[in-house]
Amino acid sequence: MFAMEPLTIQRMADLSGLSVHTLRYYEKTGLIHAVERDSSGYRRYSPADVDWVRFLLRLRTLGMPISEMKLYSDLRYEGDSTAEARMELLQKHKRKVEERIRELSGHLEKLEDKIDYYKGMRMTTAASIQLDRLDHFVLTVSDLQATVRFYSEVLGMEPVQFAGGRYALNFGRQKINLHEKGKEFEPKAHAPLPGTADLCFIAHTPVAEIMRILEQRGIAVEEGPVRRTGALGPIESVYFRDPDLNLIEVSNYAEA
């Protein structure tokens, strides 16, 4: 295997995609240290210089400011004694990159939703109903009182009783109407059965506190806390089950 020959600044520019001016600027600001020169005074970039410039390009692509790149370069130049400081600097920027990825993922999902919307407009000539929000849904339950106790005591919903033995659970600007199995009100779903629902609620209570409340009440956590995607972006969720074994997901939206 042949050793790589030192590169001229023009060859380095061609290989890295940086301009000659940028390479000189990086050296002037200290991002690139001590590039060797030949007898005529021309720069000659070693294989180690090539690897370092490629790493700088990765940092730049990941949005690291020049000031932090300069700090990292200075620490690297000081030797192994700064390894811990360099690691902390990279970990700090890694967290920023991860947060940006989560933010962009949320934006990407909204963009995909909008694209799907326009695809739907293109695929149909019939007018479509424009919805605003979900007002209520119906749960068919085995035991009305057990369900009311669970949703009011564990999830803080407000039980409401109507004429004719109808029950509902209010929360936020929505409600759940309850039908007891075998005594459903008309009209109803084609095949209403207890334990067939999979519901997600957004909570003001932090997920850590939700976990504590579930533990206090002896309610088994099915899964969580885990990251999921809600209607408006990333969420953190906890899963458990109600008396009919419906799957209940309670979530917080991730902070921007």
Description:
By secondary structure, the protein is an alpha+beta fold. The chain folds into three domains: 9-96, Multidrug-efflux Transporter Regulator, Chain: A, Domain 2 (Orthogonal Bundle); 135-194, 2,3-Dihydroxybiphenyl 1,2-Dioxygenase, domain 1; 195-256, 2,3-Dihydroxybiphenyl 1,2-Dioxygenase, domain 1 (Roll). The protein has seven helices and ten strands. The chain has a four-stranded mixed β-sheet with strand order 3-6-5-4, covered by helices on one side. Strands 7-10-9-8 form a four-stranded mixed β-sheet. A two-stranded antiparallel sheet has the order 1-2. A hairpin with a 5-residue loop joins β1 (36-37) and β2. α4 runs antiparallel to α5 (83-123). The longest helix has 41 residues, at 83-123. The model has no long low-confidence stretch (mean pLDDT 89). InterPro entries: DNA-bd_dom_put_sf, Glyas_Bleomycin-R_OHBP_Dase, Glyas_Fos-R_dOase_dom, MerR-type_HTH_dom, MerR_fam, Tscrpt_reg_MerR_DNA-bd, VOC_core.
**CATH top level assignment of the largest domain:** Mainly Alpha
Total separate domains: 3
**Rg to the nearest angstrom?**
30 Å
**Spans where pLDDT lies below 50 across 5 or more residues:** none
Average residue pLDDT: 89
Number of helices: 7
Question: Quick one: overall form?
Answer: elongated
Largest sheet descriptor: 4 strands, mixed
How many DSSP-defined strands?
10
CATH topology of the largest domain: Multidrug-efflux Transporter Regulator, Chain: A, Domain 2
Distance between the termini: 51 Å
Strand order of the largest sheet: 3-6-5-4
In which range does the helix fraction lie?
Answer: 40-55%
Q: Beta-strand level of the residues, as a percent range?
A: 15-25%
Q: Which architecture of the largest domain per CATH?
A: Orthogonal Bundle
- Which class best fits the helix and strand makeup? alpha+beta
Which sequence of SSEs, written as H and E, runs from N to C? HHEEHHHEHEEEEHEEE
GO molecular function: DNA binding; DNA-binding transcription factor activity
Pfam families: Glyoxalase, MerR, MerR-DNA-bind
Domain VOC: 133-253
Keywords: Coiled coil, DNA-binding, Transcription, Transcription regulation
